[in-house]
Specification:
Elements lengths: L1 E5 L6 H12 L2 E4 H10 L3 H11 L6 H12 L8 E4 L5 H13 L6 E6 L2 H9 L1 E4 L5 E3 L18 E2 L6 H15 L2 H7 L3 E5 L4 H13 L10
Parallel strand pairs: 1-3, 1-4, 2-3, 4-8
Antiparallel strand pairs: 5-6, 5-7
This protein binds adenosine monophosphate.
Length: 223
């Protein structure tokens, strides 16, 4: 199965992609994580991408499409994948289609995640990450035992610069202007499933699994 988890930042698609990829033995491909790794490693792409990411803007297509294409054509994605954060605009969606067409594959389903703006802002603003081991926390929903200290490795937690309140607003605007339109694109292809994300993680996960399992065996092509 080849899936896309589409939706605004902070809607919870990354968390769900992680859970579903384990449950369904799919590879989780997060374009944001790929870019952050490049930034941390100070690669040429990372150095160019950094400022866009910190300011909440999309990085130019040429910095991300090749990395994602390489990943989905790699052995890691042989059993299928969940794309999280990609595509972010129409031209990326078209590149994705043609990349898959070349190997006679296609996207099977696009899960479109929605939640109210209030829920999204609360989720993003409270997000804290351990710089050392990458563990994720939330100030309100899953706080560490000791404030700002990772439960797992005792390192300090930090807030991503693009999770600062003023940058969240920019990211939501960018989503509306460039990414939301993909809902129509995939709806017209008849492969869109909407997922309401105002509820709890378990409930959302169950909704996704129900959507997945309603796909016929033929569609669940795992080649
Ligand atoms: P995310 O973790 O998906 O919210 O991505 C964090 C940031 O990485 C975004 O705000 C963008 O700056 C950049 N980014 C991630 N994926 C893409 C993409 N497909 N196209 C352009 N920029 C991206």
């Amino acid at each position: 199965m080849r899936l896309i988890f589409h939706g605004p930042p902070g809607v919870g698609k990354g968390t769900q992609a992680e859970r579903i990829s384990i449950a369904e033995n799919l590879n989780h491909v997060s374009s944001g994580d790929l870019l952050r790794t490049a930034v941390d490693a100070k690669t040429e792409i990372g150095l160019k991408a950094r400022e866009y990411i910190e300011n909440g803007l999309l990085v130019p297509d040429e910095l991300i499409v090749n990395i994602v294409a390489e990943k989905i054509n790699s052995a890691e994605c042989k059993n299928g994948f969940i794309l999280d954060g990609f595509p972010r605009n129409l031209s990326q969606a078209k590149v994705l289609d043609s990349t898959l067409e070349k190997v006679e594959k296609k996207i099977d389903r696009v899960f479109s995640f929605t939640a109210s703006e209030e829920v999204i802002i609360t989720r993003i603003a409270g997000r804290r990450i351990c710089k050392s081991c990458g563990a994720q926390y939330h100030e309100l929903f899953s706080p560490p035992l000791k404030e700002n200290v990772c439960d797992k490795c005792s390192s300090k937690l930090y807030q991503r610069k693009d999770d600062y309140p003023e940058t969240i607003k920019v990211r939501l605007k960018v989503y509306k202007e460039q990414t939301e339109t993909l809902i129509d694109y995939y709806n017209q292809k008849g492969i869109l499933i909407e997922v309401n994300c105002n509820g709890g993680k378990k409930e959302i996960q169950q909704n996704i699994l129900t959507g997945l399992h309603s796909m016929s065996e033929k569609e669940r092509d795992t080649e």
